[in-house]
Amino acid sequence: MSRGADRPVEMPGHRSDIPTPSPRRLLVTIDTEGDNLWANPRRITTRNTAFLPRFQAICERYALAPSWLVNYEMVSDPTFVEFGRDVLARAAGEIGCHPHAWNTPPIHPLTRDDYAFTPYLTEYPDSIIAAKLRTLTDLLESTFDRKVVSHRAGRWAFNDSYAKALVGLGYRVDCSVTPGIDWRTVPGNPAGDGGTDYTDALRGAYRLSAKSDSGAILWELPMTIRPAGRSVAATIRRALRTITPARKIWNRLYPAVRWLRPRPGNRNDMLRLLQDVAVEGAPYAEFMLHSSELMPGGSPTFRDERAIDLLYDDLEALFEQARSLGYLGVTLQAYADELDRSVTSTA
């Protein structure tokens, strides 16, 4: 994809003229999907559903409300449906949308093996983008008897066609943008140009659309990502121009950016990032994790029970710091409501 040309255009009103809701908010987002999709399984299982109540419980203990962003195989899992309905009934979180292009109906083969290549939804024709989004949205809404308004793209791929399809379906918030990250080096369709380039994307909330026919604004809430700030490491990374084993090792040892996203051994980085975001005056911080990362062996990241226990130790530390810094937990939908009210109050 060409840099900037295919990325959604920020609408006027994305900076100083959008009032800042107060106090600061913590948005907890979970990409809710099948087990260990990094392995490109042909038969996708959803055993990680059994491990989600533990995460929901820790969130509730810290007065956080997760946004469970759900893909096709998870909304088709009866155990997850029971879990999600309970979360909604208690107003303890929300259900949103997280489509994966290769297995969300209608199936539209794009490569010789879509399960192996996992193409980006942005690589499909506009009509297929809209049809897949409608299928998953309708299934989520009929299953949970609730309007779905929050969304994150599978594999972080997003563009104008995608945004227009969301507006047409009544979505109010997207959180697919990863500031400072260029996904063009990560392939989808082998005949394509890779993912979306967010190198110059804004870090804070902005409008992706004017008001739709329903009167709603589609907001973008980018992930909380900041430069790691290691100039020597960045110089060496630039020298390793292509994705080679050496560059992969270097990126793991010295990442170019810091995410509010757990990894083994990155507790201090997350704590510093949350502190830095508070000091810079950002109105929200956005945390993310995959549902399968909550299960031992459900990802390459947390491979066994000990790794999961260490993950929860890190979550305790992070959520405790968030509380001490004055962060209040809200869903993506609730934060969009606050942004709408802020705009209305100054109109």
Helix coverage percent: 25-40%
Total helical elements = 11
- How far the N terminus sits from the C terminus, by CA atoms, comes to 36 Å
Low-confidence stretches: 1-5, 11-17, 231-237, 247-254
Task: Give the helices and strands as they follow along the chain.
Answer: EHEHHEHHEHEEEEHHEHEHEH
The total beta strand count reads 11
Estimated structural class: alpha/beta
> How can the largest sheet be summarized?
5 strands, parallel
Q: How many independent structural domains?
A: 2
What is the CATH level 1 assignment of the largest domain? Alpha Beta
Radius of gyration: 19 Å
Architecture of the largest domain in CATH?
A: Alpha-Beta Barrel
Mean pLDDT: 90
What is the CATH topology of the largest domain?
Answer: TIM Barrel
CATH level-4 homologous superfamily of the largest domain: Glycoside hydrolase/deacetylase
Residue share in β-strands: 5-15%
Q: Which outline best applies?
A: globular
List keywords for this structure.
TIM Barrel, 11 strands, alpha/beta, 4-stranded mixed beta sheet, disordered N terminus
Characterization of the model:
By secondary structure, the protein is of the alpha/beta class. It has two domains: 287 residues, TIM Barrel (Alpha-Beta Barrel), CATH 3.20.20.370; 32 residues, no CATH class. Strands 1, 2, 3, 10 and 11 form a five-stranded parallel β-sheet that branches. Strand 1, helix 1 and strand 2 form a beta-alpha-beta unit. Helix 5 runs parallel beside helix 6 and helix 9 runs parallel beside helix 10. The chain starts with 24 loop residues before the first strand and ends with a helix.
